[in-house]
Design goal:
3 strands, 3-stranded antiparallel beta sheet, mainly alpha, about 45% helix, single chain, Arc Repressor Mutant, subunit A, 5 helices
Length: about 100
């Protein structure tokens, strides 16, 4: 079971980037997440990068200009855990044990 806890802004960012492994330009990400304030977007991205959930091609992402100039993708090593944290109801049920007769 995953111990990852995410807030709404982080979930929105992860869903927008996509858990499939492709990268997304920062300008496109900023356009698609217009409902978040720029400071919220930058803070959430910094947190996701610090936790190694999101990979960026830039070392520092501290302003909206940095976000728009960078490219982001989900860390493939953490994609399964993130998918389980974002969609907890999609977990496969554990198989029932059958009694042998």
């Amino acid at each position: 079971m995953s111990d990852i806890s995410l807030n709404g802004g982080e979930i929105s960012i992860l869903k927008t980037i996509g858990l499939g492994g492709g990268s997304m330009p920062g300008a496109q990400l900023a356009d698609r997440i217009a409902h978040l304030e720029p400071a919220e977007l930058v803070d959430a991205l910094e947190g996701l990068i610090a936790l190694d959930y999101v990979l960026a091609d830039r070392i520092h992402v501290r302003t909206m200009d940095d976000v728009k100039a960078a490219s982001f993708r989900i860390n493939p090593a953490r994609a399964r855990e993130l998918r389980e944290a974002i969609y907890p109801s999609r977990k496969k049920p554990e198989p029932r044990r059958r009694r042998r007769s």
